[in-house]
Amino acid sequence: MASREIVQYDSGLSRVFKVLAQVFLVIYLIWTVSPFIIMVGSSMKDLLEAFTLPRVGDWLGALSFFNFSPTFKHYVALFADESFGTYLGNSLIASVGSAIIAVVLGTSCAYSMSRYQFRGKKDVFFWIISTRMAPVVAVIVPLYAIFRSFGLVGTLPGLILAYTTFNLPFAIWMLKGFFDNVPYAIEEAAQCDGATRLRATLQILPLVAPGIGAFLVLCILFAWNDFLFATIIGSGGAKTLPVATKELIQPQNVQWGKIMAAGVVTTAPMMLLGLLIRRYLVAGLTMGAVKE
Amino acid sequence: MQKSLSASRASFSAIEEDHGYAARRLDYGPGALNEEPKRRYHILLMAPAIVTLAAITIYPFFWLIYMSLHKVSVARSDRWVGLDNYARLFGDVKFTDGWLLLLKYSALCLTLEILIGVALAVILNGSRFEKVLVTVFLMPMMMSPVVAGLVWYYLYNGTFGWYHWLFQSIGILGETSILADIDTAMWGIVIVDVWQWTPLITLITLAGLKRVPQDQLEANMVDGAGSLRNFFTVSLPNIYPFLLIAILLRFMDNFRFIDHILVLTGGGPGNATRILPVYLFDVSFQFFKLGRGAAIAFTLLIVTIILGMILVRIFDDPKKQAASGGAGETTDD
């Protein structure tokens, strides 16, 4: 990793800029991180402690936020009373299931698309990307009606299928980019050596394996974080973590401790996975338009 | 890193390049070595994905059109109403307001995200803490939007919310929570979107900045240009295609994700934050008027498809788009 050459600007104005920039950076950093700190902190606080604020304008008093004795009772209650274990399982099955389907079907399709030329290919591509970009609410309306008639509403297979609507196009689109970067000569060489076409195809899979792994994780991330599909298609038998978390908000009794704990439980695994595939994350979020 | 950068230039223009590459390949292509027809093999590999995708997207799309022409009810069978569902949309203030609010919401989000995101990228680029900070900035994007909404709902709370305390302390908010007031509720949801997605703009811009030719910057500085001039004359034209992509992606995502709005305001107070997708959600799944919902969904889909076409055009050839200076008129494809 060659270090970039840093151009030094040297004028009076620039120095002012530099200070301003640093202040801006610090403020932005605090603003990015503060919700996380407050979420984690509040999840480990007693109700009374969590609801204590300093007086308005008492900036130093804000530090009192860190003054508490941590308790894990909200986490315990989550799994004991609210059966979050079940929802965690649902979330896992639905997101991993759809991710596997998307990546398996997506890989073969992407390979084929990368190597094979046919009329209307551009249109097929546009169709694929458009299904990924469609507003979820608009997609859900007909999907809900169809799934209801097939008895898929409130089931995990229904949810997995629903997630496939956005994960499969994503996988095809991204993995094609990977295959495009693998020279066709490798397969040709294999075929010269007498390998069947399928053998030749399979042997380049290890070359793109890291990419496939990363996009498996990304598909899991997208499905795991979904709320709309889960709340409409999954309602009833297939409640996922985000839905269960939201349902902790009840008109009479909002259990903030539990909600924050549930937020941590929902967010933490994805944060770890996200860091794992950091390199691919931006490409994934922008559908490969931009890579770092 | 340099290698991956130049390789990725092609990512979306790959469609274009592929034409050349594959066309050349046809002569000594896959079929040349083995006897079996190459068509079948490739179509066989493609079929499962295409069939699945068609089953869960094209089939529902026709269902959507069917539903939009019917009065759909849970108990009785659907009744044909022709274009009635569409006609009623014109008299529906919430529908027209929904569009306006969606545009307002998107405009606010995009403006803030672009301004802050680009500024951040310029500051971060080449700085000592770049790697660490970029990693930290990735955090909000990995949070489920609905959880982000819940956390901010907590932060905005009028009695124990820390951000409410902050707003009061700097004197921009009184006793009422930001979400409870018709005038400020929109800002409440915009702030959450900006919090979660500004880093994406930063990352895209950073990727663009890495490709700004250093010699141009230096040549410009020899000519006596300051850093600000340098940014506008050299960097900005270079990152422009990236920004264009970022803007369209975020614009479409504003149509896509309403999770945090459902948590934060649910469209209220009054209808202050009932942007069209939220209204669509209400009509379809609060009142279960699926026929009318389908009609609204259809209008939303058409607009998104047009946006998608623009996007694909830009992906195809970012450079040319940048040169011709905009994407407004390239909706036909």
UniProtKB/TrEMBL annotation, chain A:
InterPro entries found in the cross-reference section: BP-dep_ABC_trans_perm, MetI-like, MetI-like_sf
Pfam families: BPD_transp_1
Chloroplast keyword on record: no
Keyword Cytoplasm annotated: no
Subcellular location field: Cell membrane
Keyword annotations: Cell membrane, Membrane, Sugar transport, Transmembrane, Transmembrane helix, Transport
Topology class, membrane: Multi-pass membrane protein
Transmembrane regions: 19-38, 92-112, 124-147, 153-175, 204-224, 259-277
Chief place of localization: membrane
Domain of life: Bacteria
Limits of the ABC transmembrane type-1 domain: 88-277
Family: Belongs to the binding-protein-dependent transport system permease family.
Name this protein carries in UniProt: Multiple sugar transport system permease protein
Organism: Rhodobium gokarnense
UniProtKB/TrEMBL annotation, chain B:
Membrane-spanning intervals of the chain: 43-66, 105-125, 132-156, 187-209, 229-249, 293-312
Gene3D superfamilies reported for this sequence: MetI-like (1.10.3720.10)
InterPro entries for the chain: MetI-like (IPR000515), MetI-like_sf (IPR035906), Sugar_ABC_transporter (IPR052730)
Subcellular localization: Cell membrane
Membrane topology of the entry: Multi-pass membrane protein
Major localization class: membrane
Keywords linked to the UniProt accession: Membrane, Sugar transport, Transmembrane, Transmembrane helix, Transport
Keyword Transport attached: yes
Keyword match Transmembrane: yes
All copies of domain ABC transmembrane type-1, residue ranges: 99-311
Source species, domain of life: Bacteria
Annotated family: Belongs to the binding-protein-dependent transport system permease family.
Protein name (Swiss-Prot/TrEMBL): Multiple sugar transport system permease protein
Organism (species): Rhodobium gokarnense
